[in-house]
Design a protein that fits this description.
The complex is a heterodimer of chains A (about 110) and B (about 120).
Chain A lengths: L9 E5 L4 E6 L7 E7 L6 E7 L4 E3 L3 E6 L4 E6 L8 E8 L8 E2 L3 E6 L1
Parallel strand pairs in A: 1-10
Antiparallel strand pairs in A: 2-7, 3-4, 3-8, 5-6, 6-7, 8-9, 8-10
Chain B lengths: L3 E4 L2 E4 L5 E7 L5 E8 L3 E10 L2 E4 L6 E3 L9 E3 L8 E8 L10 E2 L3 E5 L1
The chains are: A mainly beta (about 110), B mainly beta (about 120).
């Protein structure tokens, strides 16, 4: 979920387990959401996106769930691998002439072999 | 395909010095932006541009200037560096402003330390 202060939320899982990373977004007008993965020393990389007219979207080993009622987004990673270790960010956009992405504070996922 | 290229990757400055972080993209993207990333703070938007000659402020613009003279380039200038500007800076771009996809493509980052 979102962090408070300087400490990043962390999730530690065993290799092969499923991971669930949560995000609470702030703007009820947001209609587009993205999950990014950031490995140490690198820039964020796009994982998956979802529009507000959907509740669920699946990619390769990843699923994003959107609950607009409580403004909550989650990323599920199936059969987590050591290469999935990274910081994961959710981002939101409200569309129209607003092109800005607003990012959550991130969650650190650590996969133990 | 180079994508978004940032230079330099690392820089150390003294308080009061000025410098420019360079950003170039080769994807003909209309939208370009600069974020800073600090521990526990996520990515915060500094400035952005929706096309050549058009720039606007983001969430944390103070102490930074930008310009957009070409579609490809979007430099970020620090006018008088302060220790509070020690951070990792990311440039990001996006194309197809009228299209359905809205993801940003990020550079690899520029790590700045101000002493």
């Amino acid at each position: 979920g979102e962090s408070v202060g300087l400490h990043l939320p962390t999730l530690s899982v065993q290799e092969g387990d499923n991971s669930i990373i949560n995000c609470a977004y702030s703007n009820s007008a947001s209609d587009y959401f993205i999950w990014y993965k950031q490995e140490s020393g690198k820039g964020p990389q796009f994982i998956i996106d979802i529009r507000s007219n959907m509740d669920k979207r699946q990619g390769q080993r990843v699923t994003v769930l959107l609950n607009k009622t409580v403004k909550h987004l989650s990323l599920q990673i199936a059969a987590t691998q050591p290469g999935d270790s990274a910081v994961y960010f959710c981002a939101e956009n409200s569309g129209g002439s607003n092109y800005k992405l607003t990012f959550g504070k991130g969650t650190l996922l650590t996969v133990n072999p | 395909n180079a994508g978004v290229t940032q230079t330099p990757k690392f820089q150390v400055l003294k308080t009061g010095q000025s410098m420019t972080l360079q950003c170039a993209q080769d994807m003909n993207h209309e939208y370009m932006s600069w974020y800073r990333q600090d521990p526990g703070m996520g990515l915060r938007l500094i400035h952005y541009s929706v096309g050549a000659g058009i720039t606007d402020q983001g969430e944390v613009p103070n102490g930074y200037n930008v310009s957009r003279s070409t579609t490809e380039d979007f430099p970020l200038r620090l006018l008088s560096a302060a220790p509070s500007q020690t951070s990792v800076y990311f440039c990001a771009s996006r194309g197809g402003l009228a299209g359905p996809r809205r993801e940003l493509f990020f550079g690899e980052g520029s790590r700045l330390t101000v002493l």
